[in-house]
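Hi C.,

You asked whether I'd gotten around to modeling the 328-residue construct. I have! Everything is below, sequence then structure, no commentary in between.
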Amino acid sequence: MRDKPILTTLDYPQRDEWNELAEVVRGSRMHVIRTMLKKATPDRVVVLDGSPGIHAGNPDLAVAALLGLRPKSRRPAVVMAEANWKPGAGLNGCARRLGMHTIGRGIDAFCVVSRHEEAVFASTWGLADHRIAYTPFYWTLSDDELAAPTTLGPRVFAGGNPMRDYGTLIEAVRPLDVQVTIATSRPDVINRRDIPANVQAGRIPHDRFMVELRDAGVVAVPLQSDTERSGGEQTYLNAMAMGKPVVVTDCPGVRDYVRDGETATVVPPKDPIAMRDAISWALDPDNRSRVSAMAAAARADVLSRFGPRQWVESLIRVASGVATQPFA
């Protein structure tokens, strides 16, 4: 039986189009490395997972580095999905750049999740432009979570850790008569001494996270703007897929997924007054019909354009583009 053309560690069990083309390798770190190297023949495309980032614990990076040592005649084409990396500063930045030099020799295409990163990733890491591919991210809700009923309660919900600007959100809601939940494990937020009484910040389990998300009248996604990569996609795409009104900072990548005033409200970075006005507008009962229409438009748009099917199709398209033989 002929091997499937894609060899990967990325598992999308409910996506038939992926399963027809991809052999998924699972198991311990060493098992994954050994198996991938054994099965990575030149007639296949290896699709690796870059989402854990550049660090020694990610087996996919070891696979990429070792494949890069092979002669070109014995090397498969390699695609790195979710390569949303930034070098950082100091010794850590130097180590990451060295790591990128090591793994980059064996990677034909780096996938990024925003047009901003498509433009800057190559220059940031010293790569040729043709090695960068834009693959839009997707909502990650389960079928049950997507189908669960929602309400637009008089509450604000915010969640996530990376690249969040919770300081701006806290100042935005400080004078408001509204309860706010910030689901985060970041010590700089949890340990703040000036958090107002209407704001609760801290870790919450996933089931509680989903309850807060379903019941919120507004989902706020305050983001840092001075970044080399985008962030927050999973949070605001999941919220929009559930039909929630979203207020999000105008930062790299956001306008790839959001139409300001149509599917969400986009506010300037580091502007608590603009965020406060947007949240107040969304919670105002006089605006309920317009807010509901925006939320419905967001749900329809995200479900049709930014789902798991579209994500898998984009990865297949990139893999097919670097393949030495056309996919059967």
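If it helps when you're writing up: Residues 240 and 299 are 5 Å apart (CA to CA).

Thanks,
B.
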